Amino acid sequence: MIEKLADRGITTSSGDAAVLVPAAGAGVRLGGDVPKALRELRGESLLVHAVKRAAAAASVRLIVVAAPPHLVSEVRELLTGVDADLVVVAGGASRQDSVARALAVVPEGIDIVLVHDAARALTPPELVDAVASAVRAGHGAVIPVLPVVDTIKRVDSNGDVAATVDRSELRAVQTPQGFRREVLVKAHAEAGGEHTDDAGMVERLGLPVHCVPGSELALKITRPVDLIIAEALLTAEVAP
Ligand SMILES: Nc1ccn([C@@H]2O[C@H](COP(=O)(O)OP(=O)(O)OP(=O)(O)O)[C@@H](O)[C@H]2O)c(=O)n1
Ligand SMILES: C[C@](O)(CO)[C@H](O)COP(=O)(O)O
Predict the structure, then answer these.
(1) Is 149 exposed, middle or buried (0-12, 13-18, 19+ CB in 10 A)?
(2) What domains lie within the chain, and their CATH numbers?
């Protein structure tokens, strides 16, 4: 595990990617006694599941985890067995903050940066590589998306339907989201405001964001039912 990048002089080759893993959230919607990234699925934390799968992607050179600030040492310990170059930093008060803190330690020489929720624990390495490849192919910002399967309505503050939205134009957005490093750095420096994903910050700057097909296995474990679904996917050996 790499503790201090500046002291280590990591060697990189063109096309290598770093994956930033924001994992500092509380997991209020999931509940439980520990932050969500440390909740277990089949005896392993969601964070270890996510990091192992990201590390298995051929394009990944470095993983930076943003941990809950009071648990940085515990998270380092938890990740000791993962075969990857890894850095753990203290996360921030929001996801965006946690990503910014992780981005700040990515060494020069890594031109592609992916941002990937620890909560998307079962994301296949192939999706990580597909996003990195699309960035390598020339897109400044790339997001994996799925079609929306429910009918979507806009509802007003009284609970009344204001409109039915044309879902053919809608997509559910996942992670990893991939960026040319300079695009992500600029977005974090200049977009302002709070955003629920990194691509939103790039959009705010008026820059293009390209979509690639997502994966149902990259579901975000958010509510208790999602943990049950993830367990079932592992049992059925559908997830890697
Ligand atoms: N201050 C924060 C908040 C969120 N995250 C991370 O961002 C990812 C996506 O967030 P989400 O799934 O919404 O997690 P939580 O914020 O923990 O969930 P909740 O809103 O239910 O508390 C998670 O891996 C989470 O750990 C983070 O690194 N730092
Ligand atoms: C980044 C993300 O996973 C893309 O769908 C999502 O926006 C995170 O949202 P949350 O507000 O942290 O749940």
Answers:
(1) exposed
(2) 5-141+174-235 (3.90.550.10)
